[in-house]
From TrEMBL:
Top-rank lineage group of the source organism: Eukaryota
GO CC annotations, alphabetized: cytoplasm; plasma membrane
BP GO terms, sorted: response to cold; response to heat; response to salt stress; response to water deprivation
Family listed: Belongs to the annexin family.
PANTHER family: ANNEXIN, ANNEXIN D1
Domain commentary: A pair of annexin repeats may form one binding site for calcium and phospholipid.
MF terms in GO: calcium ion binding; calcium-dependent phospholipid binding; phosphatidylserine binding
Protein's name in the database: Annexin
Metal-binding recorded as keyword: yes
Ligand binding (Ca(2+) 1): F24, G26, G28, E68, I254, G258, A296, T299, E304
Keyword terms of this UniProt record: Annexin, Calcium, Calcium/phospholipid-binding, Metal-binding, Repeat
One Pfam family named in its UniProt record: Annexin
Length: 313
């Protein structure tokens, strides 16, 4: 369930562009007007606004936004205004240019999108960076992570509900065998996690739990500091229960002395049109605090108002 709220009657793209232009003119920028428009338009409506703005004013809307606003507010607005595939492509490129084993952005993109959406991300990456996502992943990641991430971002999983229980039982045993021997990067384990459909993988993991008495992910906690094991756990959680995964990302971003604005912005801008309502429910169940209240307590100004608007206020 999306958290995005769109008015029952939406102005034409030309009218929205006129109002945005007014927000940019004069001595100061009208940030509230920018939020009132862009934070309440869906992806197709935002795309029309961008196209119309370029046609009327001869300038890219993203360039105008970049000139007029700054900081965390600018990042949130820019990411939100992009097409979802372009946004993911830019996030992936950013993650690769500054790649660290603890960065889960690539896993989120590969495991929390549909096959069609992930294919669109790869196309957008081609168009934006004149390289393939797969070759950049191979070039910027290290050996063990490369074995996992290249097939993850390259996959085009079957989306249907069919399940082969005989296969689920046999592959549950394969997973158990590899984990028992601590062969976490074995090609069979990687193959199962990166190629099977969601329905098939969930059946396999359920079979693993039933036959061996513990959840697959719990067997990947032998070394809490091992980032590769953490990546495997993240891939499974992202794939099987994305709302709980992203609720945890938001929780970790908010708790502590400082806020991880990049992680918080990524969760809200990428999930507002997908399942942010479910993420809010998972966050509330885990912390007993509404996510919008937690965000309001840890952010401020126009950045806070943008995130709160995307959360459904």
């Amino acid at each position: 369930m999306a958290s995005l709220t769109v008015p029952a009657t939406v102005p034409s793209p030309a009218e929205d562009c006129e109002q945005l232009r007014k927000a940019f003119e004069g001595w100061g920028t009208n940030e509230a007007l920018i939020i009132s428009i862009l934070a309440h338009r869906n992806a197709s409506q935002r795309r029309l606004i961008r196209e119309t703005y370029a046609r009327i004013y001869g300038q890219m809307l993203l360039k105008s936004l970049n000139d007029e606003i700054s900081g965390d507010f600018e990042r949130a607005v820019i990411l939100w205004t992009l097409d979802p595939a372009e946004r993911d492509a830019m996030l992936a490129n950013e993650a690769l240019r500054n790649w660290k084993p603890a960065n889960r952005t690539l896993i989120e993109i590969a495991c929390a999108r549909t096959s069609t959406q992930l294919f669109a991300v790869r196309q957008a990456y081609h168009a934006l960076f004149k390289r393939s996502l797969e070759e950049d992943v191979a070039a910027h990641t290290t050996a063990t992570f490369r074995k996992l991430l290249v097939p993850l971002v390259s996959s085009y999983r079957y989306e249907g509900p069919e399940v082969n229980m005989k296969l689920a039982k046999s592959e549950a045993k394969i997973l158990h065998d590899k984990i028992s021997h601590k062969a976490y990067d074995h090609e069979d384990l990687i193959r199962i996690l990166t190629t099977r459909s969601k329905a098939q993988l969930i059946a396999t993991l359920n079979q693993f739990n039933n036959e061996f008495g513990s959840a697959f992910n719990k067997n990947l906690k032998s070394d809490p500091k091992d980032e590769f094991l953490a990546s495997l756990r993240a891939a499974v959680r992202c794939f099987c229960c994305p709302e709980r995964y992203f609720a945890k990302v938001a929780r970790v971003a908010i708790k502590g002395l400082g806020t991880d604005e990049n992680a918080l912005t990524r969760v809200i801008t990428t999930r507002a049109e997908v399942d942010l309502q479910l993420i809010k429910e998972a966050y509330m169940k885990r912390t007993s605090v509404p996510l919008d209240r937690a965000v309001a307590g840890d952010t401020s100004g126009d950045y806070e108002r943008m995130l709160i608007a995307l959360l459904g206020a």
